[in-house]
Amino acid sequence: MAYAIVRAGGRQEKVSEGDLVVLDRQAAEVGSSIELPALMLVDGDKITSDKSDLENVKVAAEVLEHMRGKKIVIQKYKNKTGYKKRQGHRQDQTRVKITEIK
C-alpha cells in the first residue's frame, strides 16, 4: 500500500488514495482538483525522500466542501484586578478526497 507525506497549509499530512482529509482553507472551487506537494513517498519497501525524485510525484485531490472548524474559546483572567477577556475563533477548513498518488 502506497502512502505519501504532503505539505498542506503549514502542516504535514499522511495520505493514501481514497482518504478524506481536512486541511486549512484551500483557494479552489468545490468539485475542482488540486495538487499537493509531496515530501515523502512510501511504496511498499521503497521510500523516496530525495527532492529531485519527488518533483515527479503527483498527489491529486478533489475538493469536496469548504467548512468551518470547531469553535475554540480563548479566556484570559487576572486575579484581584477585575480583568477578564473572552474571545472565540473558528478556523476555515477544506475537506478533500485524495484521488491519486503517482
TrEMBL record:
User: What protein am I looking at?
Assistant: Large ribosomal subunit protein bL21
Keyword Ribonucleoprotein part of the UniProt annotation: yes
Which spans does this entry mark as compositional bias, Basic and acidic residues? 89-102
Query: Can you state the subunit structure given in the record?
Result: Part of the 50S ribosomal subunit. Contacts protein L20.
Regions that span the bilayer: none
Which InterPro entries does its entry note? bL21-like (IPR028909), bL21-like_sf (IPR036164), Ribosomal_bL21 (IPR001787), Ribosomal_bL21_CS (IPR018258)
Instruction: List UniProt keywords, sorted A-Z.
Output: Ribonucleoprotein, Ribosomal protein, RNA-binding, rRNA-binding
Region of interest (Disordered), ranges: 83-102
| Superkingdom as given in the UniProt entry | Bacteria
Checking Pfam families in the record gives:
Ribosomal_L21p
Q: What are the GO MF terms of this UniProt record? A: rRNA binding; structural constituent of ribosome
Which family, according to UniProt?
Belongs to the bacterial ribosomal protein bL21 family.
- Spell out the NCBIfam families in the cross-references: L21
Q: Which HAMAP family match?
A: Ribosomal_bL21
Keyword Ribonucleoprotein listed: yes
Q: Provide a GO CC annotation, any one.
A: cytoplasm
Q: Which GO terms describe its biological process?
A: translation
Function field: This protein binds to 23S rRNA in the presence of protein L20.
